[in-house]
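Lab notes, practical 5.
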Amino acid sequence: MPPPSPHPALARCGWLPPAGSRVLVALSGGVDSAVVAALLAGAGYEVVAATMKTWDEYRDRGEVDPRRADQGCCSMAAVADCLAVCDRLALPYHLLDLQDCFRDAVITPFIEAYGNGRTPSPCVPCNAELKLGRLLTEADRLGCDVVATGHYARRTGDTEPALLRGVDAGRDQAYYLATIAPAALARACFPLGGITKQETRAIARDLNLPVAEKGESREICFVADNYRAFLARAGGPGGEPGPMVDTAGTVVGRHTGIRDYTLGQRRGLGIAATEPHYVVALRPETNEVVVGTAAHLDHRKIEVEAMRWLAAPPADGRCTAQIRATAPATQATCELHGDRLLLRFDTPVRAPAPGQTVALFTGDRLLGGGTLARVVD
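Output from the prediction step:
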């Protein structure tokens, strides 16, 4: 009997594992990962589905939050959707308890970062340390060669894999993969990288998947309301009120705690001024929130630490750099200085914040990523 013909979408994703490989699909309960499982199973791969049970704020405190029954990526409703997809596709299913790993890699650094006046990018360590980190360990345990996810990104190459942006510019998720390890990329597959979200939804409908009409998940999966309320419940650092000062050091008001503010924030400052003011700096060492005009938000040089490279840095230093998931990539020159990287932007970038992930590209290719350590000027 001839092997099944792969769906045309798979021919555009960049790279597929050898025919017949056993693949672990990270199933979230959403439409993207469900389509990944369906496409690979339909192409003759031996698909094993797994959901990461990440973390439950209330359960961690020994409490029960009724909203967890139908909200969040590891809620009972999400698991039920995963089971429905696996039943439709006749796939084996595993629910993996990774709560301790998620707490250590994502939750604790998130709380500490805001308390220290930094702005973290929690989805980046989640992808690097769990989805394409710890999940590979689970793949080994389950006898799988490759992990496949619903990211809109492309992986190319066998012996020297490269990671490229997804073709759907509005959904591209290469930024979130900025700090994955090269060894993880070598075992990763992104079947949706060559198609658009609209095409993904159409495939789900064509295959009659039970999640075909399911809506999008929220940005920070572990925050049920808003991050400020979450941080207050967590009781981490940065909650002490203190002075709000202007760029000259003059006290212009009071703040409620450094963890309640982010660079570029305009609302909720409670100060009177003749022109709009924004948070332009956070000083945890003196517990000060610094405010200034829009002109104080623009910077041309930043320093990046903890770089993880997927490709060699460009010989001439020229690249584009993206400082947040929703920001456009900006032309820049990078210079290595020991274990740190100095980035000089051709044009100023708005409100670069220590703690953010910085992703570097040449064209569509991801070079690697690190953490914004400080603004130089």
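Observations recorded by the TA: The CA atoms of residues 252 and 273 lie 10 Å apart. The radius of gyration is 22 Å.
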